[in-house]
Amino acid sequence: MADKKKVLIAEDSSVIQTLTKKILLIQNYDIDSAKNGKQVMDKVAKKNYDVILMDINMPQMDGMQCAKAIRDQGNDVPIVAITGNARNYSMEDFKAVGINEFLPKPLDFDVLVETVKKYTLVN
């Protein structure tokens, strides 16, 4: 069997993080999680991920700053923004910091799984 694909869930809401983690574990992904942008940067520095699910509103470093910092390091891991404030950003705003696509909150977990599969099957 192939190695499990690695997903980093960057989300400060424990409820969303726990639900997302449980759903992706059922799909046989290897899951790490972070509650703020600093933790995301620490984890990305130590481990390669197949996809990052990035909340836009996180403490210490928001998802937009975090995505830009990841790209500034030359890392091209797919980043999927998760936000309840999608109306505050255009797809151009997300692309400008290196975010591949976004999912609105409340999350549709079927769409979440499809999106993660889309990015992990290519790698």
From TrEMBL:
SUPFAM superfamilies listed in its UniProt record: CheY-like (SSF52172)
One GO-annotated biological process of the protein: phosphorelay signal transduction system
Keyword Chaperone: no
Sequence ranges assigned to domain Response regulatory in this UniProt record: 6-120
Protein's UniProt keywords contain Phosphoprotein: yes
Residue positions where 4-aspartylphosphate is found in the record: D55
Keywords (A to Z) from UniProt: Phosphoprotein, Two-component regulatory system
Pfam families: Response_reg
Transmembrane segments: none
PANTHER family: HYBRID SIGNAL TRANSDUCTION HISTIDINE KINASE J
Name of this chain's protein: Response regulatory domain-containing protein
Organism whose genome encodes this protein: Persicobacter diffluens
Taxonomic lineage of the native organism: Bacteria, Pseudomonadati, Bacteroidota, Cytophagia, Cytophagales
